[in-house]
Design brief:
- By secondary structure, the protein is an alpha+beta fold.
- It has one domain: Helix Hairpins.
- It is 67% helix and 16% strand.
- The protein contains two helices and four strands.
- It has a two-stranded antiparallel ribbon with strand order 1-2.
- A hairpin with a 2-residue loop joins strand 3 and strand 4.
- The longest helix is centred in the C-terminal third of the chain and has 53 residues.
Length: 147
Amino acid sequence: MSESSNELRQASQQLQAIQFQIEELTRERETLRSTLNELRGAVEALEQLEDGSTVQVPLGGSAYLRAEIQDIDEVIVSIGGGFSAERPRDGAISTLQERQAIVQERIETITESIAELESQGTEIEQQLQQVAQQQRLAGEGTGPDEP
C-alpha cells in the first residue's frame, strides 16, 4: 500500500471519528436543552403558583391527577443521588436556577467542542482532497510506456 493511500485511509478514519463525536455531542446538547427547558418551566411555575392553585400531577404512564396546592412553601426538590429534600419556595427556585446555570454552561462547552471538531473535520476534508488530487495527478503522469 502506498504512503498516500495510507494517509488517505488514516485521514478518512479520523474524519469518521470526528463525525461520530459531533453526533454524540449534538445528542447530548439536545438532551441538555430539554432539561434546561424543564428547569425553566419549573421555576416559572413556582414563581406563579399560589396556595389553592390547581395543578396536574403526573402519576406515570401519561396519567395525571388534578390536585390543589395546600402550601407553596413546601417544595420537594431532588438533591441528587436519588435523594430529595423539602425546601421553601425561594430555596427551591434558587436550587433550580443554580441547575439552570450549570446546564447552560455545559451546553456552551459542548457547543464550543462541536465547533472545534467541525473545524478539525474541515481541515481533514481539505487534506483528503489534496491527497486525492495528488493521486490523480500522479496517476495521469504514469502512462503505459513509462516504467
